[in-house]
Specification:
Shape of chain B: globular
Distance between the termini of chain A: 58 Å
Mean pLDDT of chain A: 68
Largest sheet of chain B: 10 strands, antiparallel
Radius of gyration of chain A: 31 Å
Low-confidence stretches of chain B: none
Oligomer: heterodimer
Shape of chain A: globular
Structural class of chain A: alpha+beta
Largest interface: A-B, 83 and 75 residues
Helix content of chain A: 25-40%
Strand content of chain A: 5-15%
Helix content of chain B: 10-25%
Distance between the termini of chain B: 34 Å
Largest sheet of chain A: 6 strands, mixed
Number of strands of chain B: 10
Order of helices and strands of chain B: EHEEEHEEEEEHE
Mean pLDDT of chain B: 83
Radius of gyration of chain B: 18 Å
Structural class of chain B: mainly beta
Chain lengths: 612, 214
Amino acid sequence: MASLLIQSLYAYGLALGLRPFVDREDVSFILEIGSKNPTLSRCVGEVKKGKKGAPPKLGGSLLPSVPLRSYALPYSVDRTGNIRPNHGYDNLKNVLLEEKHRSAFWAQLKEDLGKAGLAEILPHVDRCLPLFAKLIPGWGLDKAEGWVVITCGGVPIVEMPQFRDWFSSVYAPEEHPAKPLAYDYITGQACIPVATHASIRGLPGTAGEASKAQNTSLVSFNEKVYGYSVGGRYGEPGKQCDNNFSISHRTSVLYTTGLNDVVRNGRACIADFQHMLFWPEMTTAGSIESFPGVPELLTTRTDVTHPIIPLVTKVLGRLLTTAESLEVWEAVKGLNAEDATLINVLWLRTDKARISVLHHSKLSAATLRNNLLQFQQEFCGIPGKPNLGFQALRRGTFDPATTGSLALAIVLGTPFPAILNPDLSSGDKQAEVFDRFLLIQSIRATNEVFPMARPEIDITMDFPPIEAFGGLPTTDKQTASQLMGRYAAIIGWVVEYSKKMPHYWKVSQGNDYSMLLTDPHQLLHRPQLQIYLELVRKRHMRDNGRQFEAAFIEIDEALAMRGVRSNQHFDLNELKIGFRIQSAWCASQDQWIQAKRKANKAKAETSQLAGV
Amino acid sequence: MRSKDIWFRVQGKFAHFGGISFGPERTTMLVPSASAAIGMCRAVFGKAALEWLPREVHLLSKPERILTTVNELKSFATGHSVDRTQRQRTMLYGCDYGLRMGYRISPKHLRPQDNPEKIEKMLADRLAKQQSYRSVCLGVSQAGGVIEWVHDPSLMPVPVDHTEDFGWIFYATDHHGDDQSYLAPLSMKAGIATYPSWDDVRKYGRPFAYKQVS
């Protein structure tokens, strides 16, 4: 359930505690108000990121320079529609450049200083305010951007103990509104739902859309598309965005605190714009205490760290050297094999303005350990690659679209997804790794045990001996025409066999069958994998050769939708044959159409070849 | 008004038990909500006067989660084909649940030609013949399944060992009360999740509504 994700993050954030200040953030300007005239200094150095991740624009070249500094700034306020000033710092536009925002910022700062018990700074503020209009044109701030921190006597206000104590006390306090509008979905308490949830930091997105991805959201509202309003119906126009997933401000702050920590400490970037996040399941104390029927809290973990999390993020997210790889696998083997701690697994995609949640589940640390070791054993021992890590597996082998599903299958220990196209076009192509992948894919598929007690239709059958398709036992002296006839017979067998399997279509009768197109489990039972295994065995018996070329065949309407692909290559000089069949995962209608076009084209070419 | 517990076993290859969503992706709960459990039982026998009371659900096998793509309407208001879109939906794969359900007959919804004895007899006949009024759906219409009455609960398989707090989740819509949807907490211990009773939910549950609350 969707809210289970937010609840897990909320519990994790609750265990971490509120974090009113960001760790360290680079600032671009320092405004000193303690002197007779306010002075603005420009911080010079290698700025990693400016506002919203973009590098700061040039400006302020007439200003004195100071070395780059970073401060633990208070978390910025949520700004939608009306610009609200930050506490103690803000961007250059709000602090100095735009008069409307400038007056709001300084009024807010005076209010904050009064509440924080720093009234001695107020006269400095009052003295400086009238001077800004005269001084700013001489500072040469055209097109300048960046954070401005206010200092008094050389001490930044945001680092003064009184200011920090005050901000910590007012940051996301407990709420008891007089007129609540809804119940918090996480805590069950009456609240006024927040219009926008707190932002998520540090999750990289697309380079071209950094501004969207740096401060992005997990929960957001688009009136026309995401009609999850509680008061209004699905897609009903005219509803406010704060109807969306109603939680209180404190809850939103806590779950994003948890998510921000997970992004920093438990994230593996598995492919471009795809991230897998891990964190331990924490106690949900306080969330259901007000319901007398269910008082029992089952998850009681309070330690926010777990030893498997840095290991799994290393395995999935980094390109390891051999020494690092050995060290990581030794550490994984040394973990407790009976650890029942639940570990959350979250697969995100960040190539959009809003984070896409592709998967969330929980599994025990012991299961995760076993799954990692299974992956290590499956892919170890490839010549030249004795300890193949996940990133080394995917590079030059898989395209990013399928990498995420593969990582998830490794983490969960499930059958591998069917791969539409191996990404063997790059310079560092790894044909031997893809070979191993296909073999492991078949083994995982055949090892799968469907857990239902009700008897299933037996969909597996022994592949006939290859001699049953005519001709003599395989020798190196066969002619090309004999071999072609043999493989045509095999393909015919696949056609007949697939027609005998209406079982797969029973589920979809009268329903939307698009889910069948994207179900890897459906694909992994395919008979072609049985054929593949058989042919691999015979091929290795024969010559251990490896020659492949691409050629699509269209078996029938049903199988074509799953994109059965067979590769044949005839080398008349050596008379060796390589044969590979792979099933395809058509993730969308467009892919299916493209696959079908390819299949038709290849079918035509195959017919011509057969005619010759 | 009599009530006794009835055991069902529900199996299906796929299932999707959606709850409170916060985005376009459809994620799923591990076990059916009370509402989904009631819906399954209404496939066996659905009468307005018969109020199904979900007691507990047993997780008889641990399903996998698989990612699928489904066609959906963006808006029910227009219903035009141009509003169709493809969305990610996580489905459970390999589902097997044991359901313990109670029932009671609501005199308020009893039609003049019906009486409680008649309804109970119809239910007993239907159960004895393993008939269902329509095919059962595990959460969504695409996920068909099979429901059967388990006469002897001791024959049910042992639940898998799974323990998890689900927190506040969607419970059901109170069609026999104020037509209000409710949230209620749920947790699973050793593969068994006990639904809160309707009485508790009406008293302590959280209305799934956006209005001024007290």
